[in-house]
């Protein structure tokens, strides 16, 4: 790799925590009566569309054009439309969102390769933390629910008033770890926002393109540009640090 790394920052959703699986379980748990006919394949397509958010509603939330609950409901309405279902009215959508928000934390789980990697980083004396495109307290609760209380350093979009791929949010993570940009790796599942964004901010950008569980935001035919490393699992990160 040609340079030493003494700190690692991680994305959270689809990097440390299997959010798509949690979404799928929650969608089924709070599914309306008109979804009882869904087959396993129907649920997979429905969940994948909801998670991928091809209409960019989550980006609209990040830019301040939508509220958090609003973006979630719009993603649901799009998934319902594509499944041939009628949209929920405002009261039903509000009730659905409340039920979804209450159920989702029960399904947060860390990927199997997370704890072994954190153990290995600690054994090597490499500091670690997380930088996420969501607000700090929401992601703090998510990490804790998934058993990742050991991740103490966490930067959210409300911490510095910036979202990835803006450099400021990466730089705050580096500062909190007491590292230097050029000696800090950033690992995430979104090639553009995480891998390229971190590299542009002066960190070592690492794209996690999970071999057995591709990210819903991966994109077809994606390939990392020069200067961004690609790994198929978190265990492969040890070869870089």
Automatic annotation (TrEMBL):
Molecular-function GO terms, alphabetical: hydrolase activity
Keyword terms: Hydrolase, Magnesium
SUPFAM superfamilies named in the record: HAD-like
Signal peptide region: none
Named cofactor requirement(s): Mg(2+)
PANTHER family attached to this UniProt entry: 5-AMINO-6-(5-PHOSPHO-D-RIBITYLAMINO)URACIL PHOSPHATASE YIGB (PTHR46470:SF4), N-ACYLNEURAMINATE-9-PHOSPHATASE (PTHR46470)
UniProt protein name: HAD family hydrolase
Gene source species: Arthrobacter zhaoxinii
């Amino acid at each position: 790799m040609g340079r030493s790394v003494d700190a690692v920052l991680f994305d959270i959703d689809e990097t440390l925590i299997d959010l798509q699986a949690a979404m799928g379980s929650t969608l089924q748990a709070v599914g309306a009566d008109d979804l009882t006919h869904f087959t396993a394949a129907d649920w997979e397509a429905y969940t994948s569309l909801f998670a991928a958010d091809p209409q960019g509603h989550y980006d609209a939330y990040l830019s301040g054009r939508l509220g958090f609950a609003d973006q979630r409901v719009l993603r649901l309405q799009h998934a319902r439309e594509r499944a041939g279902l009628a949209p929920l009215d405002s009261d039903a959508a509000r009730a659905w969102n409340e039920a979804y928000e209450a159920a989702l934390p029960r399904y947060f789980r860390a990927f199997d390769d997370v704890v072994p990697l954190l153990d290995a980083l600690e054994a090597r004396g490499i500091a670690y933390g997380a930088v996420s495109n969501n607000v700090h307290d929401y992601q703090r609760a998510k990490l804790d629910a998934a058993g990742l209380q050991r991740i103490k350093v966490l930067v959210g979009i409300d911490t510095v008033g910036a979202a990835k791929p803006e450099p400021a949010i990466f730089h705050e993570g580096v500062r909190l770890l007491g590292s230097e940009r050029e000696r800090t790796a950033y690992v995430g599942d979104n090639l553009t926002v995480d891998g390229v964004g971190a590299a542009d901010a002066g960190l070592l950008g690492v794209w996690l393109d999970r071999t057995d569980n591709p990210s819903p935001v991966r994109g077809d035919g994606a390939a990392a540009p020069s200067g961004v490393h690609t790994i198929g699992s978190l265990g492969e990160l040890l070869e870089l640090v």
